[in-house]
Amino acid sequence: MLAVQKVSRTFDNGYKAFKPVSFHTEQSEIVGILGTSGCGKSTLLRAIAGLDLGFDGEISFQEQSVRSGTEHTGVVFQEPRLMPWLTVIDNVVFGLKGNKQEKREKGARLLRAVGLKDTEKLYPRELSGGMAQRAAIARALVTNPQLLLLDEPFSALDAFTKMQLQELLIDLWETNHTSMLIVTHDIDEALFLCDRVLIFRDQPGVLFKDLKIDLQRPRERGSLEMAEYKREILQSLDLNHDVHVKSAI
Ligand SMILES: Nc1ncnc2c1ncn2[C@@H]1O[C@H](COP(=O)(O)OP(=O)(O)OP(=O)(O)O)[C@@H](O)[C@H]1O
C-alpha cells in the first residue's frame, strides 16, 4: 500500500535528517515509527504526508507518488491546530466539498464517532486538550482517508487522556480498518497500538529494526508479553543501560 523506497532528506544547510530508508506497509496495518529525539521521525512523516517534497528517493501510496497528490491521506499533528474562529463542526468539515447539509451530517457523525456528541457549536477555546485532539482526529477522517498519519498525536496530553485516545484510535480502526502510520517516542503507546514498529535510532537516523508485534487485540497494558517486547525495543534503542542504572539506585 505505502511504499517508501530509498528515501532520505538533506536540508538546505547540508544536514541529513536520516539515511536512505525503505519499507512497505500493508492495507489496514497500524505501523509505528518509534525512535529517540532527533532521528528524523517527523521529517519522514512530513515527506509521506506530502508536506515536504524535498526528499530523495520515492514514496508512493497505491502506486501513486506523493509528489502527484495525497488526497488519500489524513494527518493529525501533536497540537490540534483547530481554527479558533470556527466552531468545532466547521473545523471538522473545513476543506470538505459538497452540499452544506451533507457536510454537517458527516461532521456530526464523525464527532459522535470520536466521542464529541453535542460539541458541534462550541469553539476550540471551550474544549479541553483531549477534546480538541478528538476534534482533530475527526477532521483528519472527514475525507475518508485510506491512510491516517499521526505525528506524536497524544504526547501533549495527560496519561489518562492519552490512554483514552489510544483506545479511541483502536475503536475507529475496528470500525473502518483505516491504515495508520504513527510517529511516537512512547514505547507503551507503540505496543498498545501497532501491528509493527519501525525502530529508528542515531543521528542521522537509520531504520534499525522492523519489529512485528504479535499480540491479540484488545491488548492488555502492562502484560508480560508487552514487557518482553519493551525489553527488546529498549535493547534496540540501546537504552537498557539507563534502565539498569535506574533499577540499581
Ligand atoms: N528545516 C530543517 N532544517 C535543518 N535541520 C532540520 C530541519 N528540520 C529538522 N531538522 C533537523 O533534522 C533532525 C530530525 O528532526 P525531526 O524533527 O524529524 O526529528 P524527530 O525524530 O521527529 O525528533 P523529535 O522526536 O524530537 O520530534 C533534527 O536534528 C532537526 O534539528
From TrEMBL:
SMART domains associated with the record: AAA
Taxonomic superkingdom: Bacteria
InterPro entries according to UniProt: AAA+_ATPase, ABC_transporter-like_ATP-bd, ABC_transporter-like_CS, ABC_transporter_ATP-bind, P-loop_NTPase
Gene3D superfamilies, per the entry: P-loop containing nucleotide triphosphate hydrolases
Pfam families cross-referenced by the UniProt entry: ABC_tran
Assigned keywords, A-Z: ATP-binding, Nucleotide-binding, Transport
ABC transporter domain residues: 2-227
Keyword Transport belongs to the record: yes
PROSITE patterns documented for this protein: ABC_TRANSPORTER_1, ABC_TRANSPORTER_2
PANTHER family, A to Z: ALIPHATIC SULFONATES IMPORT ATP-BINDING PROTEIN SSUB 2, TAURINE IMPORT ATP-BINDING PROTEIN-RELATED
UniProt protein name: ABC-type nitrate/sulfonate/bicarbonate transport system ATPase subunit
Lineage of source species: Bacteria, Bacillati, Bacillota, Bacilli, Bacillales
